[in-house]
Design goal:
about 0% strand, mainly alpha, single chain, about 90 residues
Length: about 90
């Protein structure tokens, strides 16, 4: 039995939690959803833990910006991709 999912809910989930794959999980695409959830959590973990590099004298800030910047930009890309998916869901409802 197939249950039709509300595209407005999927769109809002994609806009607000798209970086974590919440819309894919809601729509039943478990592989994509779990993959994005794991990637999103790992990227946020690296962002959170990168402040420890600031404690290294002289080069700490350079390492911090490099290590913090890459996961931040990657998660920003995932979030923008989620917003685009959300707009598509809301337009096609």
């Amino acid at each position: 039995m197939t249950v039709e999912k509300d595209m407005t809910t999927a769109g809002l989930l994609a806009i607000f939690l798209g970086g974590f794959g919440a819309d894919y999980l809601y729509l039943g695409e478990k592989t994509k959803g779990i993959t994005l959830l794991i990637v999103g959590i790992l990227l946020m973990f690296f962002n959170f833990c990168s402040w420890i590099l600031c404690l290294i004298p002289y080069v700490g800030w350079i390492l911090y910006l490099f290590v913090w910047g890459i996961p931040f930009l990657a998660f920003l890309g995932l979030s923008i991709w989620g917003i685009v998916r959300g707009i598509k869901y809301l337009r096609n409802k």
